[in-house]
Design goal:
Elements: H1 2-27, E1 31-37, H2 42-47, H3 55-62, E2 67-68, E3 76-86, E4 92-103, E5 109-115, H4 139-144
Amino acid sequence: MPQFSRHSRHGRLLIAVGLSAMLLGTSACTRIRTHQGYQVDKLLVDSVQPGIDNRASVEGTLGRPSFVSQFGEQDWYYVSRTMRSLAFSNPKPVEQTVLRVRFDPAGNVAAVDRMGLEQVARISPSGDKTPTLGRHRSLFDEIFGNIGAVGAGGMGGAGGGSNTGGGPNGS
């Protein structure tokens, strides 16, 4: 019987090591959820009223904006985004709220607009190359294509006519 207990201890140890490895393996595949930007408090956002609040009261209620518009009216933007990713994959936006507070010329709140995830632009690159306009040249064209082009007419070197006069019409 003592030999049986020795094997059962060894078996229990193997089971414990196997379970811990399995738990570590599944924890590496858990979803990672991160939040970026402004923490939206619905009660505070709803308290900002057009015609009643001004820049100072909005800053006192919501805090400093994420960014201010650079052109036109000085709109304030509060951006909040929740991202989710799986282990080492690229994060994807799950929720997004962009709060835009528009002010009139006197500095009073004119409107409060909310935009969500529908405003996120989805860009999918095509392949591993950036498409460009122009001519397509091979490696040999790139290496040997400029041989003899130095000083060719119209290239800024020798050749080509010169204007010998002093004025714009050669006079």
